[in-house]
Every structure is written in C-alpha cells, then in structure tokens.
Amino acid sequence: MIGRLLNWRRVREMLRKEFRQMLRDARARRMLFVAPVLQLIVFGYAVNTDVRNAATMVVDHDQTVESRALIDALTASGYFRVAARAEDPRDLVNALDHGNVLVGLEIPEGFAKDLAAARQANVQLLVDGTTANTANVALGYATQIIGRWGLAHGGGVAAQTLRTSGAGVDFRVRAWYNENLESRVYNVPAVIGTIVLLMTLLLTSLAVVREREIGTLEQLMVSPLRPIELIIGKTLPAVTVAFIDLAVITTISLLWFDIPFRGSAPFLLVASLAYILTGLGLGLFISTVSNTQQEAFMSMFFFFLPAIMLSGFMFPIANMPVALQYLTYLDPLRYYLEIVRGVFLRGAGWRILYPQALVLLGIGVLVLGLATRQFRKTTA
Amino acid sequence: MRFSLQRLLAMARKEALQLRRDPRSLAMAFLVPVAMIVFLGYIISFDVRDIRVAVLDQDHSAQSRALVSAFEAAGRFEITQRLDAPEQIDTLMSRGAVRMALVIPSGFAREIVSRKPAPVQAIVDGADANTASIAMNYAAAIVTAYSSHAVLGQMTVPAPVGAQSRVWYNEALESANMIVPGLIAVIMMIIASMLTALTIAREWERGTMEQLAATPVHRLEVICGKLLPYLVIGLADVTAAVVIGILLFHVPFRGSVVLLAVMATLFLLGSLGLGIFISAALKSQLLATQLAMLVTFIPSLLLSGLIFDIASMPLPLRAVTTVVPARYFVVVLRGIFLKGVGVEVLWRQGFAMVLYAVVGLALAAHAFRKEIA
C-alpha cells in the first residue's frame, strides 16, 4: 500500500541529498544548532517580569526609630532597595523625572508621634507609572507591607485589639506550580516553543523557493520523484534537526534555568511532533506560494510576528480584547504553549491536554495537506 | 568635487520617483507601521481583570458568605465555581480553568465571632508569576479590609499607617500608555533598516549602483540623497503613530513636539544609515533583510526596556542593552509623551541619539567608499 505511494529507495537518496545540503557549510550549521541556544539564553534572561529590588528613594523627614523601622520592613521584603536618600522632596521629583528610581517614599515629620498617639500616621508613596506593569506590582507590595507594619506597630485600641488577640482573618496564600513566583519558570518553556517554531519555519520556508530560484527545482521535477516523496524528503531532515534543537534547549532549560519538569515526557514528545509538523507545513506552504526567497522570508516574518504576539507568550491572552482572543485560536503556538507550560509546570499529561494536542495535530495535517496540494499545482 | 545641494536634491528626487513606482515597498513603508502599532497596542496588556476564582466554602455561614461577596464586589475577581471538596481544586487548577481557589474552612464564623485567628486559605496558580502576584495583592487587600471590619464591628477604624499612594505620569496604570510610545522606537527601527535593506540592496543586485558610481556625484550626495525620501517617510510614520497613539489609545502627550521631531530625525538617520551599511556590505536583498531583522527586531523588542525592565536583567545582558539604540529612544518617547520632560532631563539620551546618527551615517559612507572606489 505504502510501497505504491512512494519508493523507499528514492526517498532515501533524496534524504541523503537533503541532509548533506543542509549541513554542508559551517554557517548553516551554526544557524541550526548554535542560534537556538543563544536565543534561549537571551530570551530566558530578558523576558522577565519579576519585581525585585526596585530602586526606591527615601525622603525621611521624621528620622525616628519608627520611620527607620518602616523603611527596613520595605527593604527586608526583598522587593525594594533604597537606592537614594534625600531631604528635599524636589529631589524625589527629579529622580522620578530622570527615571532613576521607580518608587519614592516620603515619611512626614511627626510620623512616630502620630503612631504613638494612635492617630493615623500617613506616608506618601510615589510610583513611576510609565512602566505600568512593574508599577502596579510594586505598588501592591508596598501598600501591603506598610499596612501590615502599621498593624504590628501602631498604637490605639484598634491595632492593639487586632494584635494582642490575633483576631481576624488569618489569610494564607500559597502559589502552586511556581512557589517563588519567578516569571522565568513560566517564560522559559514558552521560549522553547517559540524557538522551535522559528527553526521549523526557517528550515522550510526558503527550501522550495530557493530551489526554484536557482533552477534545481526543474531538475527535481524531471527526476522520477513524486510530490509526496519530495515533501517527505524536504520535511524529514527538518524534523530531525528540529527535534535535536528541542532536546538541546530543553536540557539547557532544565539544567541551566532550573525549570521544573513535572509532567509526562512521552506526551510532550508526541505533542512536539505534531507541533513540529505544523511548523514545517506552514513553512513549506509559504515556500510554495512565494516566487522569491525574499518574498518567502517576508511572508514568514509577517506570520511569525503575530503568531508570537497572539500566543500568550509575553502577553496574557486573557487580557486581550475579546475579538483578538478569538483570533488566538488560529495560532498553533498558543496550543503548544499551553502544552509545554502544562507539562513542565502543572504536571499535566494526555488526560488534561489532549484537546490542545488534537487541535495541533489537526492544524498540522491540514497545512501539510495544503502545502502538498499547492506544490502539485505549482509544479504541474 | 564640491558638495552640491542641487545634486543632492536631484538624487533625492530620482530616489523618490523610483520609490513611487514600487507600490510594494511603499505599502510596507506606510501600512506596516500603522498596522503594527494598532495591533500591538491592543494586544499588549498587563491589566489583570476578571480573575477566575473557585470558592470552597466549608463554613456556610453569614460571615463566610460576606467574605465571598467582598471578593465579588471588588470587581477584579469573577467567581466561576463553587466547590464541595478540596480535591476539585487540583483538577480545575491544572486545567487552568481557575486562577485562584479560596478555601474557607468550617469554624470560620465561630473564630471570627470569638475574636480568634480565623484561617482562610487562597491557592493561586503561580505559573504566570506576574498575574499571580497582582491577584495575590488584590486578594490580600480585600481580606484585610474584611477582617478589620468584621473584628472591629461597625466602627470604621483607619489603618494605623496609611500609605497614600500616587502614581505619576500614568495615573490609571494603563498598559497602552507604557507600550504605545515606546513601540514607535521599535517600529521605526525595523522599518528604517528594512526599507533601505530592500531598496538599496536591490540596486546592488541589479548593478544600478555601479552606474551611480560612474556619474559625477559625490559620495555624501548619494547617501544623503538616498536617505532623504526615506527620512520623509519615516517622519510621516512617526507622525501617524503619534496621532494614532493620542486618538485611538488616548495616550497623553505632555512634552514638546519639536524635541520629539528632532530626536526622531536623529534616530531615523542612524537607523537608515545602518540599513544602508547592511545592504552595501551584503549586496543581497535576502541577506540584508535577514540581518536587518536580526539586529533590529529582537534587540529592540526585548532589550530596549519597552516591555521588560532592563534593571532586572543580569549584568552581561544589561551591558548588551547599552548598545541597543532603541533603548535610548524608548526613554525619550516616554519622557516626552508621559512625563512631559525636556532636554534638561533627556540630554543624555539625546547625546546617544546624536552618536547613533553619526555612527550610522559614517558606516553608510564607509561602505560606499569601499565599494565605489
């Protein structure tokens, strides 16, 4: 049955030629095996939304034991560090204008007195909102720390009642899957997905069109190879390279970036195969509809960019406008990211992630079919 | 040969005519930046809302219900599931169906009334650390408010220490205000270097550049003449982006238009020069676009501080960011748009932009000298 569809000997020869062509020069080898590692390291470190040691300027007009204790409480949390101290509030304005500090804390004179007299003691928090996300997180931490410190050190009946009896809600929060809330743990698996997509697209999107440009496609066409054999010959080497890359960057993620791996490795392998086939199918499709390598490269870029942006890699899908959220369902990277994050962090496997894997497989089969059909059309 | 403005302008006119006949490059020059700023402006949002919560209320008391409705009333949380057993949390959470689970054990009301510590547990899906920390902060604030109200009864007691927080420059903490101005830098960087890589590398491929070398035109006249139309396009793009930012995304514009125009011109000159250098060095459209993409897109998106804070990167990476030109332009754009600051604050970045323009143009001139000698 399969023997009627394709001839193994011809496929083997084609594979040998393709591998040799792909790995021939040193520049190509570097592009295939070194670039992904570099990307992983740059992305892994750069894509970071943690707020730690935020630069803070303190303007302490009170200069008392209490005011210093409040500042210590902020720095002891690890979220803030005192980058500068000033006496004039105008220095604070200046520092925020220059972007030298993210947070400004101004403690007015009489802070300790108010605290002891059970009057509300006010402090000023100024946050630079230009980086909205960091500002939001920092503001939340600071408000909480100051509020808690106030309850623990404030005078007055209310605070004392709460303190001595321990009355009230004892609120305990636990974060699952990523106990220390490090953004890296969430992002590095997503970087793996992004790099694999880029590699598969790069491997195939220029492949067919290059042969057309230099004229070797004509030669392939007059050879007795059938379209299906040609597609296999073009994809299989790429699948191999993509899997090697996947293995290498996954290993680095686990060992270098200390990303936990809690789920099922066999499931990840199967899902990755579906994903890699999707990427290759997309690349081949781009290649068959383009006339020049230049066109293919531009098309690839204008597919790749929205694919990343809509995948939930750097920007949570839940925060997007609803219309764009529907658009994300077309993005194969979206499904693969749910799979890698599920497998790495949440310990998920086939039981939970089978819908994503099936959709991915569906998209893969569809685009590979389209690419084959398009290829037949252009060569016929 | 003496430098002549007339020849430069003639050169620019020739280049503009040529561009006008190339609808694809023109479309890229005008449509791509606009499409990108609208698309990315909408997509990039860190505003956490509608956090899905599952509630496991084992107490079934008026107090526990009051706590739950405090969560509902806060507006940030959406209670999507009511559970009966703790085991259900695991399934929901691992499917990603809820972001947070609130567990109120039985005896909650009794402890509250008898003024003892009443434990309540929240489990947060920490996978997305950023969303998780924001959700945790919101939840803690709600519980604290509920707690002091429940214990101290109706008397509303102010917190012993009140933190009066004010957010400057972006009062409502809108992601669009953070993203849209900075995006202009990234898009200009990509467009400027890609456009030149496309059109100038094509001249090398076709050999028309050699013809130019044979005509009596000064090297600087060639480069400036070629740059001029692209500079005009780039400035038109910046204008369009600013208008879209203000009208569509309601980003405030507090600074000086003139300063922005000067800085944008410097930045575009540098980026165009870089593009010419790349295309002259590689002489192939394909390689030039690939390299232009590699040196402009990834660094200016990741290492410019547009989205990810440079301060939280490790030292080697921070060192790399100092040579990413977009890094300085992002600071300038945010300064002018949001902070309304001028040269007195931005002179350092301004200096970096001048340097970038000079280096970019010098590289372009150098590449030409070597080739058309």
Characteristics of this structure?
heterodimer, A: 380 residues, alpha/beta, abc type-2 transporter like fold, 2 domains, four-stranded mixed beta sheet, 18 helices, 9% strand, elongated, B: 373 residues, 14 helices, 5 strands, 68% helix
How would you describe the overall organization of this protein?
- The complex is a heterodimer of chains A (380) and B (373).
- Chain A is α/β, with parallel strands linked by helices.
- Chain A folds into two domains: 13-47 and 182-379, no CATH class; 54-165, abc type-2 transporter like domain (abc type-2 transporter like fold), CATH 3.40.1710.10.
- Helix content of chain A is 68%, strand content 9%.
- Chain A contains 18 helices and five strands.
- Chain A has helices spanning 2-5, 8-23, 26-33, 35-46, 65-76, 89-98, 111-116, 132-153, 156-165, 183-205, 207-214, 216-222, 227-255, 265-289, 293-309, 322-327, 332-344, 350-379; strands spanning 54-60, 80-86, 103-107, 121-128, 168-176.
- A four-stranded mixed β-sheet of chain A has the order 2-1-3-4, sandwiched between helices.
- In chain A, helix 5 (65-76) links the parallel strand 1 (54-60) and strand 2.
- Chain A starts with a helix and ends with a helix.
- Chain B has 373 residues and is an alpha/beta fold.
- Chain B has two domains: 5-44 and 174-371, no CATH class; 51-152, 3-Layer(aba) Sandwich (abc type-2 transporter like fold), CATH 3.40.1710.
- Chain B has 14 helices and five strands.
- Chain B has helices at residues 5-20, 23-43, 62-74, 87-95, 108-113, 129-152, 175-206, 208-214, 219-247, 257-282, 285-302, 315-321, 325-339, 343-371, and strands at 51-57, 77-82, 100-104, 117-125, 161-168.
- In chain B, strands 2-1-3-4 form a four-stranded mixed β-sheet, with helices on both faces.
- The longest helix of chain B has 32 residues, at 175-206.
- Chain B is elongated and about 95 Å long.
- Chains A and B meet through helix 4, helix 6, strand 4, helix 8 and helix 9 of A and helix 2, helix 4, strand 4, helix 6 and strand 5 of B.
